Amino acid sequence: MVGSNDPNARVIGDGNWHCVTQYIRLNTLNTSTPNNPNAANRDGETRLYIDGVLTGQKTGIHFTNNPAYHTIAFWLQVYHGGSPDASGTTHDIFFDNINISEGPTNQTQCNCQ
Question: How many distinct helices (H) and strands (E) make up the chain?
Answer without folding.
Answer: 0, 5
